[in-house]
Amino acid sequence: MGKSRPVLSNVQELSLLGSLCHPRIVRLFAHRHTRTHSYLAISERGTFSELEAGLMVSDVGEALNYIHCKSIVHRDIKPENLLVSIERVAAGVSRLKLGDFGLAMVVTEPVFTICGTPTYVAPEILNETGYGVAVDVWALGVILYILLCGFPPFRSRDRNQEELFKLIKQGHLHFLSPFWDHISEEARGLVRALLQPEPTVRLTAGQTLLHPWVKAMAADCRQGAPNDKAKRNTVKMKAEQDQAQQRHQNNASELTSEKSESTKKEPISPFGIALDSLTRIIIHNLLPPQSCS
Fold first, then answer.
1. Which of 59, 76, 100, 220 is catalytic?
2. Which of 110, 116, 121, 289 has the most CB atoms within 10 Å of its CB?
3. Pick from 158, 154, 157: which is nearest to 142 by CA?
4. Residue ranges under compositional bias (Basic and acidic residues) (predicted)?
């Protein structure tokens, strides 16, 4: 599976990315492209436990805190732009790096340009009231929501972009059952703090790193030995999620059999679309990390 973009749009990105050196941001050593395009290979992965999600938020938070301190706003934070390093902290748990700086820019005053990916765009961008680095934190909140339950917090039932933008600007969060039944209140609290419609109330990247849930989940992952309570919660949550998904599969099969015995449906989410299409987290493979002098 590949990704391509016109080379002309890479000029600013390569310049900006080349000036950055941080363990949680992909390092630019060289670039190769054809006369018209550059290419990146990507792969796919499913949903994640609270432990994994906490470490991922910590990794992305570190990257955002670093670039925000340099007055750089990324403006396109989404799963496709999170690259997985071969650096591991425990069996099956990898570290993330932030990539794709094609829309990034140095911001010294409010920006009014509307850009980004619809699902992850912050309300202040849509309201055209001027925005800054806080839009990246909003997008991190959307990613965390997806990691924990498998679908976005704001989505149009009919995939209507105008309706989606209206929902984002309203900013009403819902933790739907059964998908959120066994997610901890601490994790929900962080989601609420990241998805504050008012950017001045929203957590900063630095504050996100200091959130108790992020610190606890990341510490457990880094130690490679989650505490007993975390283990029990993770196992219980996985079992309950599997049961919930099986119930939805059975319901979908029953509905399908009423219409056609030969047609098989995918599990359906509360938004009326296939769960499989929502639970894919697209990631990039990356060369081993190197230290920055």
1. 76
2. 121
3. 154
4. 256-267
Mean pLDDT score, 95-123: 93
User: Which pLDDT value is given to residue 84?
Assistant: 78
User: Cα Rg for the chain, rounded, in angstroms?
Assistant: 20
Which two tokens mark 257? 């059999």
What phi-psi label fits residue 128: left (phi over 0), alpha (psi between -120 and 50 degrees) or beta?
left
Strand 37-45 relative to strand 281-285: parallel, antiparallel, unpaired?
antiparallel
User: 3-state secondary structure string, the chain?
Assistant: CEEEEEHHHHHHHHHHHHCCCCCCECCCCCCCCCCCEEEEEEEEECCCCHHHHHHHHHHHHHHHHHHHHCCEECCCCCHHHEEEEEEEEECCEEEEEECCCCCCEECCCCECCCCCCHHHCCHHHHHCCCECCHHHHHHHHHHHHHHHHCCCCCCCCCCCHHHHHHHHHHCCCCCCCCCCCCCCHHHHHHHHHHCCCCCCCCCCHHHHHCCHHHHHHHHHHHHCCCCHHHHHHHHHHHHHHHHHHHHHHHHHHHHHHHHCCCCCCCCECCCCCEHHHCCCEEEEECCCCCCCC
Q: What is the pLDDT of residue 260?
A: 41
**Is the pLDDT confidence value at 15 over 60?**
yes
Q: How many domains does the chain have?
A: 1
The answer to the question of residue 145 being in a domain is yes
CB atoms closer than 10 angstroms to residue 191: 20
The parent domain of residue 79 ranges over: 10-28+52-224
pLDDT value, residue 75: 96
pTM, two decimal places: 0.67
CATH code, 215: 1.10.510.10
Quick check: 79 and 143 in contact, CB under 8 A?
A: yes
